[in-house]
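During the reporting period, our protein records have gained a structure token line. A sample record is set out beneath this paragraph:
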Amino acid sequence: MDYNANLDISSTGKHYDNAPLTIDSEGFKTPAGFIDYADIIRFIPNNFRVYIYLLNGTTLTVSMLGHSFDGFCEEFSKCFNARSLDSLFIEEECIMDCAGEFQIPATSVSPAEQGRGRISLYPDSVCILPESSQAVRIPLCFAANINLNGYQINISMRTGELYSFGKMGYDTQPFAERCIKYAGDIVKKRNSLISAITAEAPYTQKGLFRTAEEGKYWLAAYGNNCCAVELYTDESAATYLYRFSDAQLFSFRLEEAMEAVGSHREIIFLPDDQLREKPLYRMGVHRSEAIRFLRSCSAGRIIHTANHAEKLAEFLNS
């Protein structure tokens, strides 16, 4: 939708009176250029102004919206959150969607955050959507424990992260009950599908991408602080190489990253310069600690040629 308002840009000192502004599905159009949602850290409506903070340190201030203020804020939030969901590669049907309070742990790129936002339950995950770039998809298959404590639902992950959310009124208890049920269901289904996958030497670890994507899986072979991962998908074959210092942490993060990307496998191996040209993937990397971790461990890849086995053995024994 189109709006007219005053716009101030901190990095340039420019001021626009009665500027035409457009909110669309991928970003925010202004007289100073297009702002992709991938470049926004957070937005804060306050005292009839909207402050939009960008990753490069720039602040956009939208003011003098008049009677359009509430509509602007609602539409901006709706489009920003929808794009965040796209970047989390969610394709399943939403089971419950509520407004509530949340607490998200700190990550390698963001501090801990708490506040109010949208909290949604899907058959395989819970999503928390704050008005910031810290939207998170919590995969239920990797939850160590889920419990309801008063008006607060806690999900603790096997790698130690704790996500808390609640105060959703009468929806709190049914949300918790369904969350526990779907977590149990997805673990059983996932374990059954993984058990049917055959892993032959040198591969010792096996796993799925999204649980719903039956027939697409990966295998991992380990050496001395290194790992080779083979993706079994419809894409061109290649073996992806990684180096790390903590084998158990790498194993967990590998499973989480592969599950997070779903059918979008290229996000784990695209070079940084190519990733910059794909805003949705940039958003996905920013919102997933596991994907960032896996990318940080990258040590190249081996294309499937006649000497693939030789190169693989050489890497694992290096």
Q: What stands out?
A: Residues 215 and 233 are 8 Å apart (CA to CA). The longest strand covers residues 14-23. Helices lie at 69-87, 172-195, 247-261, 272-275, 279-286, 289-296, 308-316.
